[in-house]
Model the fold of this input.
Amino acid sequence: MLKPNTNGDRVSYSSILVPPVGTKLNMAVGTTYSLDLEALTAVCLSLGLGEDTDSMVLQSPIGMLDAIRRVSEKVLIFCEAGQIKMPSTPSALSLLLEKMVIPVALPKRDACGFYPSFHPKTWLLQYVDGQGRFSYRFAVLSRNLTFDRSWDVCFAMDSTDTARTSGKTKPIIAFLDYLRSRIGDSTQNAREKRGALEKLAKALSGVSFSTGTKEFGENFEILPLGIGARGYDMKNDPLLCADPSAADYSFHELVVFSPFLSGAMIDHWNEPSHSLTGTSRVLITRKSELSKLTDEQSGRFKIFTLKDDVVDGETALSDESDDKQKQDIHAKIYLRRKYSTVDLYLGSMNATWSAVNRNVEMLVRLRTKNRYYNSERFLREIFCGEEGGQQNPFELSKPTEVGPDPSQEMTSQLEQVIKTICRMPMKAAVTARDGKYDISLEVEDRIPEGDISITPFRRDNPIPMKNSMLFPQLELLQVSEFYRLQVKADDISVERIIMIPTSGIPAERENAVVNNVVKDRRSFVEYVAFVLGDNHLMSLLEEQAVSKGESWKNHHDQLPALYEKMLKTALDEPERLGEIDYLLKMVSDKAIIPDEFRDLYDTFMRTVQRG
Done:
């Protein structure tokens, strides 16, 4: 079930999202701490076209335009404010992602200097089949929506008509209601987005899920943390029970698999009163966390970390000096056994005080019996065999006295500056002038001291951030609610995308994005062939092979084949012809879309509608 060296136990991100056969996406709500816009674009590929997130279509602007078009009104992504990664190449297509993204900036809950984090990693997916019947998938992950190479874990389950677990969806509904409350009035189409979440929550009230496994069956609980009165209190859960008189306080086996630690959490599990006869404790974490533990704290735990060869594996195999993609554990897994009852927890919660007491998190708890699953089986799977085997990617470790990394501490401080800025009241407005656009930005609160600069997303040269700023003479495709923020100190620089409510964005900007991709007749024919092809990828490759990268010389050589494909589609799948309508509305240049094509399309559509 959790064997890292077995293909059957490894899943790609796309396999979690791709609609089941015979269905298509109707609505998707995702949550993540950090967000990579390029990764979100890849997700659109899975949700809209059913392709893998590493598909060759990802390299085609035509394919990605079609994927985003299909799902842009159906997807909402909530992320931590100030944790959107700046793409290496800010594509104009990224502007179409704006309407999907909702940053969450949580207020401080106490006098602590750090802000709580919006940290859950989840997906709730609603699919619909040809008869209008809905089905659902719910996934709890430890992985952010990024291209990070660390080791993560995912749990997903589908709705079923055979189970009787509809009452167990109440925490998911409460989570959706909480997300709805995080949509501010300044969010694009706020009312529509709140309404979509409310409708999804109501639809979920009668839905039952099942794990689909022999070990756990229908024995699961969804545990949203930090969402207020309807959230789950982990301090009353067997894993973190704080009452020594409670029946669940003690345990026989405990495995903590967490990349980040707090000494206070280890102290809790170390309490002698937790122990029963033969109690065992295992901790699997990152080497960098061992300095947080004392010998006394680690004394009751058997500690493992990833071997250096595994952490440095991809770097060692790469000859590129700038390709330093190290990997470490990022999964959060907890296993607890008392007598014959075993609880397995998966999700976003690190073994830290903040995760339990301050952040918004999401866990799923699976319950089973010792004969079906236990720590022995779990460790044998994670270790790829015996503890001392050559295939084991982990090794025994001890606490170290290595001090904190100064650069990492400075980076954390700069992250807090970004979080502070994300919580400041800001607004921007777009004004057209001489065929271009000015953006005026107003910041109401006192800006933190330091080297802080900002600029619109697709504009170079960030300038020092002030309470009142003007970005003059921008091109239409530089106008956005995405802004590039840089914070520097010494030799350390942190760069993020933040979202600022921006009024006056021209309605024709989406047309400009489409025209930036479909810029000539060749790309127009490629788009139409792509959306009508029997196989999206094969159609793309076919059109690329025919064109061989040459510019159009005589479009009449290509249009007859395109008309033939349209005729076949009108006969076999007439509903797909409507997908071309989006392009005809967005592209008005007759040099790109000839009048004869528009006339033929109108004829096909009239025929289809009469049929």
In short: The radius of gyration is 26 Å. The CA atoms of residues 441 and 469 lie 5 Å apart.
